[in-house]
Amino acid sequence: GPSGAGKSTLVALAGGDLLPAAGTVRVVGTASTAGTQDAVRAASAVVAQTTWLFTGTIADNLRLADPDADDARLWRALEAANLDDEVRRMPDGLRTRLGEQGLGLSGGQAQRVSLARAFLADRPLLILDEPTSQVDLDSEAQIVEAIDRLAQGRTVLTVSHRAGALTTADRVVRVADGGVDPVSPESPASSESPVGPESPASSDGAGGPDSASAGSGPDSALAGSGPGSAPAGSGPDPAPAGSGPDPVTEKEV
């Protein structure tokens, strides 16, 4: 959807960082209210456009999601994120030291560390905000494969302007004027053009354990967890909750 359509607002609502101004938003069966906001946040893990990695080892960065995770769990998370082989080839493996913002890794590798961290968090809702916007096509393919693995047993909500990121989505919608419009069942990823403001659009993963798509904005590695994590929907184009014509009175995520 175009800038200002409400993609970032949708992500913030789904992650519990924004309460609805009207109507009801249900996240994994829980109505999002001031009294349930912490529970709604705890139901989701957010992987944002800008990866939040810190000075320290790969293991240190992964354990932001679960400080008690042993090495075996870290390797399983890296495998799910399609990154284990590359880390095993590094001389220090899990003890490989990174600079601020993942210095020492490629953009695709850094994004997959964020995906591995989300896997460790093991939340029922995974929110991906432009997960492939800063990587090349080869890295995008690896990230999409990782997302498909992470989608097993959970709902995935993906925001993307790139058609390739939506190839495994079960449902795709365009966000416009504060509302959502379905895109034809054939995936927009079959098109060679990006899913931008003028083409069939963003995605919405409302409901179901399988992967789906919608929304947009920069990154927080995990919603409400780890030092320095950024709030979901902190990127550009926020739109006020409940804005636009014919507001939906209840939304299940």
Number of strands: 10
- Rg, please? 17 Å
Helix proportion: 10-25%
Strand content: 5-15%
pLDDT < 50 stretches: 187-251
Order of helices and strands: HEEHEEHHHEHEHEEEE
Strand order of the largest sheet: 2-1-10
Global outline: globular
Largest sheet: 3 strands, mixed
Overall mean pLDDT: 73
| Gap from first CA to last CA | 19 Å
Structural class: alpha/beta
State the helix count.
7
Question: What report would you give on this structure?
Answer:
Keywords: ATP-binding, Nucleotide-binding. It comes from Actinomyces massiliensis F0489. This is ABC transporter, ATP-binding protein. One of its GO terms (molecular function) is ATP hydrolysis activity. The protein is α/β, with parallel strands linked by helices and 253 residues long. It has a domain of 176 residues. It is 25% helix and 14% strand. It is built from seven helices and ten strands. The strands form four sheets. It has a three-stranded mixed β-sheet, with no helix packed on it. It has a three-stranded parallel β-sheet with strand order 3-6-7, sandwiched between helices. Helix 4 packs across helix 6 and helix 6 packs parallel to helix 7. It is globular. The two termini are 19 Å apart. The C terminus is likely disordered.
